[in-house]
Structure formats: C-alpha cells, structure tokens
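Async update (no meeting this week)

Hi team, since we skipped the sync, here's where things stand on the single-chain job. The sequence we agreed to prioritize is pasted below, unchanged from the tracker. I ran it this morning and attached the output directly underneath so nobody has to dig for it. Comments welcome in thread, and please keep replies under the output.
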Amino acid sequence: MGESSEKSAGQGQRGEQRRGERHRGAVTLRNRALPTSTADQRLLDSRGRSDWKTKDAWRALRILSEFVEGFDTLADLPPAVSVFGSARSKPDSPECRLAEELGAALARAGYAVITGGGPGVMEAANRGAGEAGGLSVGLGIELPFEQGLNDWVDLAIDFRYFFARKTMFVKYAQAFVVLPGGFGTLDELFEALTLVQTGKVTRFPVVLMGTDYWRGLLDWLRTTMAAEGKIGPADLDLIRLTDDVNEAVRHIVEAEAVLSAEQEAVREEAVARVAADQRAAAEAAPEGPAGRS
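Output:
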C-alpha cells in the first residue's frame, strides 16, 4: 500500500472515530475529548451522591454564571417572541414554511425572534426573521446529540442547563408561538401555560400554529382535563389556535397593547394616590406661629 493510500485509510479511520464538536465558551471539544454525559445529567443523576459535597458547590457557581451570561447578553434585546417547534422537521415541511413566514411577520412588526437555535422549525423561524431584517436569537443547549446553531442566528448563547435556558425564553419574550414539535416543544408549551395560569407572569399570549397537529391535544384538554375539573374553563382561553400568521402576530400586538395600557393605568393611579396623600398631610399639618392670632 502506498503512502497516499495509507494516509487516506488513516483519515478514514479518523473520520469514523470523529463524534462531532462541542463548544464551552473558549473551549472546543472534539472526538475523544467529548464527554459521554451532559451537565444536566451529572447534576440530576441521584446515583452519584458521594460527590455532591465536593462538586455541587462548583456546579452552583457554574449555574449562576449561566444566568449572569444570559441576563447580561439579552438585557438590551428589543421586544421579542419565542418560537418553538421540532428540530426534526424538514425544510420543505408545512410547519417550516409556516415558521419562516411567521419569523418574517414578527420581524416586520418590530419583534426579535428567539428560538432554540437548532435546525428544523427553529432554523426556519430564524431565517424568516433574518431575511426580513429582524434580529434572530438562538439559545442553544448541550445535548448528547449535538445539533449546533443554525446559520441564521445573529445572537447566540449556549447553555449547559435546561432551567437556565428556559428562564431566558420567558424573561425576554412578550409571547410564545408553538409549532408542531416533540417532547421539548410540549415542555415549553406547558411551562408557559403553567406560569400564566398561576400568575407567575402577567398577560402572556401563547399561540399554537398547526391546527391539524394540535387539534387532538386541545380536544383532550377540553373533553377530559377541563371536563373532570382539573383545569378551569377559562384556562382554555390562554391558548390561541390558528394557522393564520397575521392573526397570530395581531394577537401578540394587541395583548402587548392591552398590558401596556393596564400598566399605565396602574402608574397613573399610584401617582394620583401619592398626590392625594401629600395634600391630606399638608391639610392636617398644624399651623405655624405666624398663622396664630
């Protein structure tokens, strides 16, 4: 076998061993250096109790650093909408075409688009926003099957921990739009609904797009969950189902306008109350020496 053949064979073996690439800040991991578990696994796995006292304190600092990084990076973000959907959807699928149209419409309405930064529906929404001149944000996550950030993301943060990442999806968004997806998409959907239902976040529109895909779930919520009293009838009103991009964006804009009006009314009421208290205090104050006869 010649030298070039041996070199090619060696490269082929190397390619077979190659397991991808993962970034951790300034650190790049490839091939044999890639860990076999994720940070979330190591944090939540109860079988490793012996190292909790020695390692969990350092993990707490790492978790804190993710929140600091996210808050610092996204603090100046314009009004934004988080868009969720499957990473497995093909570019020519109905949900990807819908996501791209949605991303463009949100950008034209003045919103940044936040996704998980991966392929499929996420990439389509980022692409639509980017091509329409809007800001495209990707919040990536460390996974055993590394997906990487799509090429349409303008601003990206990679997270180790799901709960830090999920906080950013809610904290910096005015609404959620949920397209067809899997477990992760359902997780984000019900997280948002729980936060709104329990009052942990103020008026927060949740839009489902893909009526054929979601109809079975909504029927079950209505005929089983609500019928048995596990949720109230009003809880079903927290969800807007539509395939119309303009309707979805209009619903988000209107909800934001209503919330702004309510907040302004609260501020005006507070100012009026303070002014009334000051007048009452002035009228109740005793007269000074000059005012005595």
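Quick observations from my side:
DSSP finds nine helices and nine strands in the chain.
The beta strands are 21-24, 27-30, 80-84, 112-115, 136-141, 155-159, 175-178, 206-209, 239-242.
Reply here if anything looks off.
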